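User: I'm putting together notes for a lab meeting next week and I want to include a structural view of one of the chains we've been expressing. I don't have a solved structure, so I'd like a prediction I can at least talk through. The sequence is below, exactly as it appears in our construct file.
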Amino acid sequence: MRRLAVDQIMIDAHQHYWNPARGDYFWMPEDHPVLGKPYGPKDLLPFLDRHGIAKTVLVQAADSVAETEYMLGIADVTDSVAGVVGWVDFENPNDRKQLERLAKHPKFKGVRPMVQDIPDVDWMLRDDVQWGFQALVDLDLTFDALGFPRHLENFHTILMRYPDMRVVVDHCMKPQIRDRGFDDWAPGISRLASDTSACIKLSGIVTEAVDDWTIEDLKPYVDHILGTFGPGRIMWGSDWPVCQLQASYDRWREVALELTDHLSAAEKAQVFGGTAEAFYRLSE
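Assistant: Thanks for the context. Below is the predicted structure for the 284-residue chain, given as structure tokens.
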């Protein structure tokens, strides 16, 4: 088992806990053998212990404030959960009150609209949702940008419109590796890196690759974010349990370590802990 030889806290910047019986995971296929069962802290703990990971960021998987409260309840009794990224309804300006209330919880860090699942690719440009972005700036909360390469241009517009918003791009914006989609993805990623202060998560890319993916399939994409964002703006996340569709937690962790093995010890410490700790202010 490959381990980092650095004196730096290790963080999984993106993982999920859920119970499908709650009834608000509308994207989840019913009775799916991997996704359609409950996952909680006791299920993840063996992986965290094996890899020396002390903290995680628990990220929303349902478009409901109720799920955010469910996650905060887990965080209250789980020391390893250092931060929670939740959800509010950007189409309801009254949900600013929800944001203000949630922001009082010490482990609530920000929100993630499920942009990838919204049919209207221009949803984030609508006038009626702009209050949400401004509220994140006003309350100094984070924004997890979840989408596909087709959303890159609009995310660039929003990030330029709200330069003070603290943003991290989830799952490298899901490049379509299985379709050899590098050229459709790389220019937009480069623009986000050069024009904005956003960070990016080295996560979620195995599920965008073919079933029999190899490390060489992933390498061009990882090399590109390393070259554009740099280690100080990159944070590793497992995307567990979703990653299990294409790789175990152990396998994805090993591959990520191998793909970043050429970095210095200090740079690895940023990717596998330091960037997430600073961005989400996990030590506060």
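A couple of points you could mention at the meeting. The longest strand covers residues 53-59. Residues 10-279 form a domain with the TIM Barrel fold (CATH 3.20.20.140).

User: Perfect, that's what I needed.
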